[in-house]
Write a structure and sequence with these properties.
The complex is a heterodimer of chains A (229) and B (247). The longest helix of chain A is centred in the last third of the chain and has 31 residues. With 229 residues, chain A is mostly helical. In chain A, 79% of the residues lie in helices and 0% in strands. Chain A has 11 helices and no strands. In chain A, helix 1 packs across helix 11, helix 2 runs antiparallel to helix 3 and helix 9 runs antiparallel to helix 11. The radius of gyration of chain A is 21 Å and the shape is flat. By secondary structure, chain B is α/β, with parallel strands linked by helices. In chain B, a hairpin with a 2-residue loop joins strand 4 and strand 5. Chain B is globular, with a radius of gyration of 18 Å. Classes of the chains: A mainly alpha (229), B alpha/beta (247). The interface between A and B is medium-sized, with 23 and 29 residues.
C-alpha cells in the first residue's frame, strides 16, 4: 500500500475551510447546552418532584440514546410533524445547521447537568452551614458559596464533555453539513484515498483537542488558585 | 439591673429518626454568661447548641433567643442567626475567598454594611485575633490554629449577642490549641455571652460561670466550675471526670 503525502498537503487546506463550521457547532452547542444543563440541574436538585422528575426523564432519554439517532430524529423526524412545520421554529428545523445545534445542545445538556450536579453535591456541607450560621439566605449561599466551589469541582469532568462534544460535531456531516468531517468525506469520494484523508482529519481533531485541553487546564488552575498552599 | 435572658430552652426534644438525641432540655443563659458544655461523645452537646441557631430543628419544646421564638419562619431564623455567632470544629472557612473576604461576606450581604466599613471591621477583628498580616491569604495557606482564629473573627464581625463554640479545639494539633483558647478567654473577659462545647477543662475552670454535663441526650448536672470539678453530685459526672482528668 502506498501513502501519498501530496494528497494530504492538498486535502488539509480544504478541510481547514470546514474548521469554522466545526467551531461554530462546538461553541454554540456548548454555550446553549450549558444553559440547558444549569436549568436541568436546578430542577433536579430542587427537591420538588414535579421539577426533578421531568429532568430525570429527560436526562435518561438523552443519555440512553445514541447522539446519531438524536440528530436523525431532529433532522428527518421533526419536519414530518405538522405543528413543527407550521411553528415559529420551522426555519431552525428546516436548516441542517439548526438541527445539528439543537441535537448537540439537547444531548450535551443532559450530560453536563449531571456533571454540574456532582459539583454541587460535592460542596462541603460544613461550608454551607457556616453560611447559614452567619445568616445568609438560601439564594445567597447558592450564589456566593455553592456556585464557585461547585464550578471548580465540576470543571475536570466538564472539560471532558467539551472535548467529547468536539468529536460529536463530526456527526453533523451525516446531515449534509460541510464541517471538517463533511469536507473530508467529499474529498474521499473524489480521490478514493480514505487512508490519507481520514488520517489528516484525525490529526486536525487531535490538534484542536490539544488546544482545548490547554485552555481548560488554564481555567482549572484559575478556579483552583485558592487550593495551592 | 436584672439579667437579660438571651437563650431559653424549655422541654426541648430532638430526634434523628427514632434515636432521641435530646431529652427534655431546659436551659437558660443570661447576657454575659459563659457556659461550658461537656460530656461523652454522642451525648447531644453539639446537637443542643446547633438547635440554638437552628442548624438542627428541634421536635418538641420551645427555644427562645433574645425574645424571638425559633419556628419555621425563615425571616425569624435569619434574624436570630444574625445575633448568634458560631464557631465550628472544622473551621468551615470559605475556601475560595481570602481571609478578608471571608470576614466581609456576611457583613455585606446580611448586615448590608458598606464595603469600606466592612473591611475596617474585618481588619479590626483580625488584629484582635492577632493575624492581620494574613488578610490576603486563602484559608488553606493558614495553620489550623490560625484558621480557627479567623473563624472566630468572622463570627465577631457580625457583632453577635452570643457566640456558640462547637468543639473549637478538637480538630487542632496540640501546639495550636492554646492560641485559640487565648482568643476565647480574651472574649470571655470582654463579657461576650458564650456557650462552649469543649473538653478543655482548664478553660472551663478559668472562664466558665457554669459547667453543664450532658449524657445520653440529657443535662445531667449543672454547676459552677468549682463545685462541678471538686464535688460532682451525679455518678455519671464523676465517672466522666475521672476518665478525662486522670492524665
Amino acid at each position: 500500500m502506498t501513502f501519498d503525502v501530496s494528497l494530504i498537503v492538498d486535502a488539509l487546506p480544504k478541510m481547514l475551510v470546514g474548521i469554522g463550521l466545526t467551531f461554530q457547532l462546538l461553541v454554540l452547542s456548548a454555550i446553549l447546552g450549558l444553559i440547558l444543563a444549569i436549568g436541568l440541574m436546578l430542577m433536579r436538585i430542587s427537591g420538588k418532584w414535579y421539577l426533578s422528575w421531568p429532568a430525570q426523564v429527560y436526562i435518561y432519554v438523552f443519555r440512553g440514546t445514541p447522539i446519531l439517532v438524536q440528530i436523525f430524529i431532529v433532522y428527518y423526524g421533526f419536519p414530518q410533524l405538522g405543528f413543527i412545520r407550521d411553528g415559529v421554529l420551522w426555519p431552525l428545523f428546516r436548516d441542517p445547521f439548526g438541527c445539528a445545534i439543537v441535537a448537540l445542545t439537547l444531548n450535551t445538556g443532559a450530560y453536563v447537568s449531571e456533571i454540574l450536579r456532582g459539583g454541587v453535591l460535592g460542596v462541603d456541607r460544613g461550608i454551607l452551614e457556616a453560611g447559614s450560621a452567619l445568616g445568609l439566605s438560601v439564594r445567597q449561599k447558592f450564589i456566593y458559596l455553592t456556585t464557585p466551589i461547585a464550578a471548580r469541582l465540576a470543571l475536570p469532568a466538564y472539560g471532558n464533555d467539551i472535548i467529547s462534544l468536539l468529536k460529536s460535531t463530526a456527526l453533523a456531516s451525516t446531515i449534509t453539513l460541510a464541517d471538517m468531517t463533511g469536507i473530508a468525506r467529499t474529498l474521499v469520494a473524489q480521490t478514493y484515498a480514505p487512508y490519507e484523508i481520514f488520517i489528516s482529519l484525525a490529526i486536525v481533531y487531535m490538534i484542536l483537542t490539544w488546544i482545548l485541553q490547554k485552555s481548560l487546564g488554564r481555567v482549572e488552575r484559575y478556579l483552583g488558585r485558592y487550593m495551592q498552599k | 439591673m436584672t439579667e437579660r435572658i438571651l437563650i431559653k430552652m424549655q422541654h426541648v426534644d430532638k430526634f434523628f429518626g427514632t434515636f432521641q438525641a435530646l431529652k427534655d432540655i431546659n436551659l437558660e443563659v443570661s447576657k454575659g454568661e459563659r457556659v461550658v458544655v461537656c460530656g461523652p461523645s454522642g451525648s447531644g452537646k453539639s446537637t443542643m447548641i446547633r438547635c440554638i441557631n437552628r442548624l438542627e430543628k428541634h421536635n418538641a419544646g420551645q427555644i427562645i433567643i433574645d425574645g424571638k421564638e425559633l419556628t419555621d419562619q425563615v425571616a425569624d431564623i435569619n434574624a436570630v442567626r444574625r445575633e448568634v455567632g458560631m464557631v465550628f470544629q472544622s473551621f468551615n472557612l470559605f475556601p475560595h475567598m481570602t481571609i478578608l473576604k471571608n470576614l466581609m461576606l456576611a457583613q455585606r450581604l446580611v448586615r448590608k454594611i458598606p464595603k469600606a466599613q466592612a473591611q475596617a471591621t474585618a481588619m479590626e477583628y483580625l488584629e484582635r485575633v492577632k493575624i492581620p498580616e494574613q488578610a490576603d491569604k486563602y484559608p488553606i495557606q493558614l495553620s489550623g490554629g490560625q484558621q480557627q482564629r479567623v473563624a472566630i473573627a468572622r463570627a465577631l464581625c457580625m457583632k453577635p449577642e452570643i457566640i456558640l463554640f462547637d468543639e473549637p479545639t478538637s480538630a487542632l494539633d496540640p501546639e495550636m490549641i492554646n492560641e485559640v483558647l487565648e482568643v476565647m478567654t480574651d472574649l470571655a473577659r470582654d463579657g461576650m455571652t458564650m456557650i462552649c462545647v469543649t473538653h478543655e477543662m482548664g478553660f472551663a475552670r478559668s472562664v466558665a460561670d457554669r459547667v453543664i454535663f450532658m449524657d445520653a441526650g440529657e443535662i445531667v448536672e449543672e454547676a459552677p466550675p468549682e463545685a462541678f470539678f471538686k464535688a460532682p453530685k451525679n455518678e455519671r459526672t464523676k465517672k466522666f471526670l475521672s476518665q478525662i482528668l486522670t492524665h
